[in-house]
Amino acid sequence: MRNISLDYQAGSRAVAPLAPAVGVLGILFGYLATAAGLTPAAAILMSATTFAGSAQFAAIAVLGAGGTVVAAVAAATLLNARYLVLGLSVAPAIKGCWPKRLLLAQLVVDETWAIAYTGGGRFNGGRLFGAGSVLFLVHVGSTAIGTVSGNLFADAAAFGLDAAFPALFVVLLWPHLMARSAVIAAAAGATIALGLTPFTPPGIPILGAAAACLLGLRLR
After folding, report:
1. How far is CA 112 from CA 53, 66, 129, in A?
2. pTM score, two decimals?
3. What is the three-class DSSP state of 117?
4. I want to staple 116 with a disulfide (CB 3.0 to 4.6 A). Which of 48, 58, 103, 128 is the partner?
């Protein structure tokens, strides 16, 4: 029991430096989600059940542009597909009954996966829970703050918040452009999305670009 407690504390300390950035993104998501038409309760519930910033922003971007719920959900699902692999890799470290394992699985995101990894293909469940619980509370709490911050921004464009979605995805994309193949994939996806934009409803261009990337991976 003592070792589990120490692992939990280690995970919490390791993820603490990331908490402020997660909090800022949560506030921004809460604000933009309500601006796109979601109620505060729906925005908070989405953060609690989805717990994946990039997928949430993608879904809200589609809805905010007038896209359908189906397109928004599909875009978010494609972005979250990597969690199937992450979840399978960390599964042996999650012990206990099925309800407990499902609860801990909800905390598996990029940051907590990295913190829980101990080398040699092994993961520490205590560190995962410690890191995940901190990020989850910060993410959901900051979303709640963001949903009531709309009155602070009389004009979103004046603060540059109208550019928040494209800026966020540029930041997410940049670290992956270190290899030539990644640059080619990004350029191909952008070309497909831009080509579809004038002729298809919001949300379809990103699905087309993602589908083309999956096809390319299959061919490879």
Report:
1. 14, 33, 8
2. 0.70
3. strand
4. 128
Give me the residue spans of the domains in the chain: 2-160, 177-220
For strands 122-123 and 117-119, give the pairing.
antiparallel
pLDDT in tens, 17-60: 888 888 888 888 888 888 888 899 999 999 998 888 778 887 88
Adjacent-strand bridge partners of 123: 117
Query: Is 129 buried (19+), middle (13-18) or exposed (0-12) by CB count in 10 A?
Result: buried
SS3 for 119?
strand
Query: Which residue in this structure is represented by tokens 């933009």?
Result: 32
Cβ atoms of residues 140 and 42 within 8 Å: no
CA distances from 213 to 62, 86, 171, 184 (A): 19, 20, 20, 10
Contact 116, 90 (CB under 8 A): yes
Is the separation of the CB atoms in 71 and 91 below 8 Å? Answer: no
Measure the CA–CA gap between 45 and 147, rounded to whole angstroms.
12
Helix (H) or strand (E) holding 141: helix 125-147
Least reliable range by pLDDT among 70-79, 121-130, 206-215: 206-215
Enclosing H/E stretch for 123: strand 122-123
The CB density around residue 7, as the number of other CB atoms within 10 Å, is 19
Helices and strands of the chain, counted as H and E runs: 12, 2
pLDDT of residue 111: 82
